[in-house]
Amino acid sequence: MTPEFAPDAGSALPLWLVRDGLPDQLGEAARNWANASGFKGGSGQVCLLPGKNGAIEGALIGLGKASGRPPRERFVLAKAAALLPEGPWRVMRWPEDVDPAECAFAFLLAQYAFGRYRKADGAKARLVAPDGVDAARLIAMAEAEFLTRDLINTPANDLGPAALEVAARDVAQRNGFAVDVIEGDALLDRNFPLIHAVGRAGDQPPRLIDMTRGDTGPTLTLVGKGVCFDTGGLDIKPPASMGLMKKDMGGAATVLGLAQMLVATGAADGMRLRVLIPAVENAIAGNAFRPGDILKSRKGLSVEVNNTDAEGRLVLADAMAYAAERKPDWLITMATLTGAARVALGPDLPPFYCDDEDAAAAIHAAGMANWDPVWRMPFWEPYEEMIEPGIADLDNAPSGGMAGSITAALFLRRFSEGAAHYAHFDIYGWQPKPAPGCPKGGVQQGARALLGALPDLLK
């Protein structure tokens, strides 16, 4: 589906945004109707206004009372959009504390529905793009969000490594990328032993998808974890933990959405953009890698496997080492990597790691400005010894269970050497319960924050 704004044809019905009282421009009949209908201006509340002949002549949308704190709900107008009748609508007056761009983006998000397996419709109401907003940019952001959601929502029987490759090739073709794929035993021939080890037990061969665009300018390399299903391997997950593992390729889905946004908004012009996706299934079979195995990485570092369910950092490590060989200006990893990140910050607020203070501040600020909050966590040096098992260079799953997101980030950082700057996002990629503009299911995290920050970071 393609998100869209209503054409500005003069037929749009008026919308009034209500915070602390009905707008003065309403006539007496409309005010009486709103009061009689019990309209209080609550967050996302809608009151349709009838005309003299019974047709709808406008609507009120409640924004809730101003509290001076961040709102408890993002994208309130997406909730309202789902309640409005089909047709074009125009906001007549913007309260001073309301961001028209966020409201317009909320209307776009409300149009999403995952309809691959049954008929599903998003909101039918369409907003006339407010004056002064970059409508094309907002549509590009929503299109990328829909792409990411669709990929995450698709189950592994229809989105294994081969289908993820097809999806990546489709993004590449539409956005001017060249594509190279290294598959199966060729991974061993080309020195990607960790990707091969993790994926060799799957029915579909593991592969490394390599997309490149541009040949001049600063270099940005995005690496997304593409574990299309994660059983946990021989350290098998319990059923309650395995049920959502179709989303373990959320990092890959997110970097594909981000790459598409960078191209659609023009931010990719004048840069060398690369996307690497190690696409595997962490399956169980006689040839699955085992707890206690010591594996050699592309970088040459040996890794003791103390838990086969900590496979994401292994496939990322080889892809990162490959990326770092070209010495990019920025190397960024995105992965549904640890449960520890969710324990620390919950499903809505993904942590990110970055050693550059100015860059980290810019990423955080861009996340807030683009309605995509992220929270910085530390590469805490004293924990480095936790990922050094003694028998090998690195441990993929330190015992004790403490600081799991930090130790995973420290593990990955060992493979970023060569890149001028590195940032890692430990995303969840899933909306556990419906919220305005975000139905239960796959969700994009961190991509809009990076879209806002990267143009300055790459100067």
Radius of gyration: 24 Å
- The coarse overall form would be elongated
The CATH homology group name of the largest domain: Zn peptidases
**End-to-end span in angstroms?**
34 Å
InterPro entries: Leucine_aapep/pepB, Macro_dom-like, Peptidase_M17_C, Peptidase_M17_N_1
GO molecular function: manganese ion binding; metalloaminopeptidase activity
Domain Cytosol aminopeptidase: 307-314
Family: Belongs to the peptidase M17 family.
Description of the structure:
- The protein is α/β, with parallel strands linked by helices and 459 residues long.
- It folds into two domains: 111 residues, Leucine Aminopeptidase, subunit E, domain 1 (3-Layer(aba) Sandwich); 317 residues, 3-Layer(aba) Sandwich (Aminopeptidase).
- It is 31% helix and 20% strand.
- It is built from 14 helices and 19 strands.
- Strands 6, 7, 8, 9, 10, 13, 14, 15 and 17 form a nine-stranded mixed beta sheet that branches.
- Helix 3 links the parallel strand 4 and strand 5.
- The longest helix is centred in the N-terminal third of the chain and has 19 residues.
- The radius of gyration is 24 Å and the shape is elongated.
- Keywords: Aminopeptidase, Hydrolase, Manganese, Protease.
- GO terms for molecular function: manganese ion binding; metalloaminopeptidase activity.
- It comes from Paracoccus aurantiacus.
